[in-house]
Structures are given as C-alpha cells and as structure tokens.
Amino acid sequence: MPRQTFWKGHLRLSLVTAKVSLTPAVSESGKIRFHVINRETGNRVESRYVDSVTHRPVAEKNQVKGFPKEDGDFVLLEDDEIDAVALESTRTIDIQTFVPAGSIDWIWYDRPHFLKPEDKIGSEAFSVIREAMKANKVVGIARLVLYRREHAVLLEPSGKGIILWTLHYGDEVREAVDTIDKKIKIDKELQEALDKQIDKQLTNWKPSLVQDTVQKKVQKLLKTKAKSGPKSKTKTSPGPVKKGGNVINIMDALKKSLQS
C-alpha cells in the first residue's frame, strides 16, 4: 500500500534542524464503506449543510466556524484566524521537553505517524536527533498542528526512523477507577490454574491475531449478494431461549478447559 505524505515541515532540537515529512502509520482505506441509498429510486442520498431556520442548503464559501455565546449569538472565526493562533507549530516540530522512554502510559497515545527526513542534508541532523534519544533512553515531547487542531505529540526512536504519536490532552483522559477490592484474598489454586491457562494460550505476536473477521464476513456477503441479485426477506424464527441459569464454578470450567 503506497504511503501518502500529508505533512511537510521541520524537526528542530536546539540548533539542529532537519527537513522532514509525516505519514500516517495506519490506514482505513481497505475498510468497506457503505453509501446511503434511496430504496425507491436506487440513487445515492447526499448529505448537505442546511440553514437551521430557512432549511436552504448553504454554499461552502458561506460556511464558517462559530462558537456559541450566552445570548444565543455566535463568535465567528475564519480558518486563517484559527491557524494563526498556533502558527509556529504548524510547520515546525520543536522538541522542548524529554521524558524517560516507557514512562507514559499507553492510554495517552492517540494516532501513530512515520516521521522521516526529506533530503540528504536533513538526514544527518535527523539521525543525530534519533540516536541521541536512543542513547539517553528518552522520548521527545513537542506540539504540532494536525487535523486542523494543535496536538501534544511524542517522538519515539524506532529503527532507522522516528514514530510521532499524537497524544490525548489531560482533560481527555478520565481518571482510572479501582474496580478491585484491595482487601480481597487471591485463591492460590485458582491463580495456578489461570497461570496454566495463560501458558497454554501463549503465542508470539503476529498481525494475523488482530484481523477484522467481521470485515471478511461482510466482503463474503457482498460477493454472494452481488452474484445472486436481490432476494426477498425471509423471517427466521429465533432459536430456543434457555430459561433460568446455573452458576458455573470457575474452577470446574478451568479444569475442563485444561483437560481438553
């Protein structure tokens, strides 16, 4: 799959500057996307911005961002006014802070991107910054405007490149909730049984472990329906519902699992 560069600028650490580009590390281009269709005509249904009072479509040139005021009116902001607020971080990744590698919990990580040098001159400066972070076992923290807003970003050395992660802001991550009673006593026999179960299910990481099975089933369904054409709906009676319910002993369930 070709990687599309969607940002170009500079990576800077003190007086060392490198010309770089940024590419999203993940893509959803292979995902199946559906259109909304008018069942009567078979035509696609379009989504448009309409005036909430006149109900008339609003041309793109007349669409502007607005923030609501207490009196019900709006403060209007143009795109260039919003961009100007964070002008420096629009085209420059200026590393201002370093933290120990591995010290940031994964809940703060948002989107990964590949950062790479754009020319031979910048490659040396890029490599020096990357190797300096590796040698000191640190990751860099900076700010960058992406997806039409400024983000806190983390720069992590990876192989011959650097992975740039956008980070969640402090007010976006909820406080962790303790769901386990600290006074509870752990059953040693149960713990040993779980250790055996984990060892039984242990394997090496590979991308096939996280395949989208629903996506594959939808693709198969689409192929089948495309060949057979439209069919009338047939109601299927649901299977028998089990009434009541016995409480399953977790130890018995684990023993049966291990025996099988």
Q: What is the share of helical residues?
A: 25-40%
Q: Return the structural class.
A: alpha+beta
The outline comes out as: extended
Question: Count of helical segments?
Answer: 6
What is the ordering of alpha helices and beta strands? EEEEHHEEEHEEEHHH
Strand order of the largest sheet: 5-1-2-7-10-9-8-6
Query: Uncertain spans, ≥5 residues at pLDDT below 50?
Result: 231-236
Question: Which oligomerization state do the chains in this entry correspond to?
Answer: single chain
Average pLDDT: 82
Using only C-alpha atoms, the radius of gyration works out to 27 Å
The major β-sheet equals: 8 strands, mixed
Percent range for β-strand residues = 25-35%
Q: How far is the N terminus from the C terminus?
A: 42 Å
| Count of beta strands | 10
Structural commentary:
The chain is of the alpha+beta class. Helix content is 26%, strand content 25%. It has six helices and ten strands. The strands form two sheets. Strands 5-1-2-7-10-9-8-6 form an eight-stranded mixed β-sheet. Helix 4 runs parallel beside helix 6 (250-259). It starts with 6 loop residues before the first strand and ends with a helix. The model is unreliable at 231-236 (pLDDT under 50).
Any key phrases for this structure?
single chain, 260 residues, alpha+beta, eight-stranded mixed beta sheet
Give the helices and strands, then pairings.
Elements (H helix, E strand, L loop, with lengths): L6 E7 L2 E9 L40 E4 L5 E4 L1 H7 L2 H4 E3 L2 E4 L8 E9 L2 H17 L1 E9 L2 E10 L2 E7 L20 H14 L11 H16 L21 H10 L1
Parallel strand pairs: 1-5
Antiparallel strand pairs: 1-2, 2-7, 3-4, 6-8, 7-10, 8-9, 9-10
Helix pairs in contact: 4-6
